[in-house]
Amino acid sequence: MAKRDSFSGRFAVLVALIGSAVGLGNLWRFPYLVGTNGGAAFIIIYLFFVFVLCTPIVFSEFLMGRRTQANTFGAYKKLAPGTKWNWVGLIAVISALCVLAFYSVVGGWTIDYLIKSLTFKFTTADQGTLATMFRDSVSSVWEPIIYLILFLGFTCIVVAKGIKGGIEKFSKMVMPLLFVLVVAIAVNSLLLPGSSKGVEFLFKPDFSKVTADTVLNALGQAFFSLSIGCGTIMTYASYVSKKENISITASLTSLFDTLFAMIAGLAIMPAVFAYGISPSEGPGLVFITLPHIFAQMPGGSIIAIAFFIILFIAAITSSISLLEVPVAYFKEEFNMSRGKSVIICFFFLLALGVLSSLSQGVLADVKIFGLNFFDLFDFMSANIFMTGGGLLLVLFVGWKLKKSDFMDEMSNGGTLKIKKWFLEAVYFIVKYVAPLVIITVMLANLIK
Ligand code: PFF
């Protein structure tokens, strides 16, 4: 068999993993959640979830991929041969496809808006006009489908070129740019008169706003932001060398993802408040509110271009990681070439993406369980596949995998000097705390 492709070193793995984690979630959800859930109070809860609960889950996904050097389905098959656990690997594949089915539509919108910014289309500061512009763009039939094809096509080309020649090369090229641009926009925002209100909105602790919902929001956001439960971490880790230190690489991923989210908050909220607008969440924030602000800001047309470049990079690097999950699965389980797996995924995702896209317009009234296609894919991935997949993953690593295998993989066969108490604590969290917390959250969401 041909030698399996791999990342060339720690920096390569790290930029690819951070590229997966940093996405639309950091830009259009995190800043808003922080502001409306008690500022620093929310951040403290979020940090707790990210580093105490979710990073050990990231370790678990990572060690399964690295240990087996296989796609998600193959990984479970290797670790628990002759059992039904490999179905959990299949859930990861479905989960990744499900996220891509709506994420790539939004990816298409980012291209649309990048082109609009490059051609200086945000000349009006009238929010009503901008809202209409957004609604018209996403609800028309052909325009968003063409952008979807472009976005998916681009994602497929990078993945088709393989790990070193595609994903690694692309991530190394764009991720540093992403950080430079977001820092530049944050500095600019902070220099605007009246920006301090935005900083206050983000960071002033207000424990009176903390409710049970805050806790659920923080955990849901931590899961989504770290890309847990879709098999992306497991799949990327399967291309990682046996010498890599899992705890360091995975912790750095969580750290940079969180850092980026905070800087994104500083790029967005101070400007929103400087122009006296009340912040919103989701597409409305980045496609309506921000263009409204850019139109009034000195040098706003340039900032707009920089911002939509950021949005595009954030979306595409996450999509690339998601696409690698089914591609690796088809390639290895059905003995296909990488090119052929990519082509199959492209057409399949195009079909799902077209449904999501049309559900913003002509198919808006076609509903399944009361949700249009776009919302259905969003709901199923966040509430069923990602959380369900995450739960089964920790149950597998905590209860099915041997503890000695866990310790062996985390310490690279005992060659790394990692404190015993640290590994024991991580194992305890994965085995007992994580399943309990995930089940509680699932039940709480169900009751809601
Ligand atoms: N973490 C990405 C974000 O914050 O936008 C979204 C995502 C990417 C979720 C990859 C899941 C995934 F597997």
Structure, explained:
The protein contains 18 helices and no strands. 77% of the residues lie in helices and 0% in strands. The chain is globular, with a radius of gyration of 21 Å. It has one domain (10-447): Up-down Bundle (Amino acid/polyamine transporter I). The mean pLDDT is 93. By secondary structure, it is mainly alpha-helical. The longest helix is centred in the last third of the chain and has 34 residues, at 300-333. α5 crosses α15 (338-358). The chain has helices at residues 10-21, 24-36, 40-68, 72-79, 86-118, 127-139, 142-160, 163-191, 196-203, 212-225, 232-237, 246-274, 283-294, 300-333, 338-358, 373-400, 403-410, 420-447. Bound molecules: 4-fluoro-L-phenylalanine. Residues 20-21, 23-26, 96, 99, 224-225, 227, 230, 232, 318, 321-322 line the site of 4-fluoro-L-phenylalanine (PFF).
So what's the CATH class? Mainly Alpha
**Main sheet specs:** none
> How many beta-strand runs?
0
The global form is globular
Bound molecules: 4-fluoro-L-phenylalanine
Strand content: under 5%
- SSE topology string: HHHHHHHHHHHHHHHHHH
What's the CATH architecture? Up-down Bundle
Which consecutive residue ranges, at least 5 long each, have pLDDT under 50? Answer: none
Global Rg: 21 Å
Q: What would you give as the CATH superfamily? A: Amino acid/polyamine transporter I
The average pLDDT score comes to 93
Overall domain count? 1
At the fold tier of CATH, the topology name is Amino acid/polyamine transporter I
Structural class: mainly alpha
If helices are DSSP runs of H or I spanning 4 or more residues, what is the number of helices? 18
* Helical coverage, percent range: over 70%
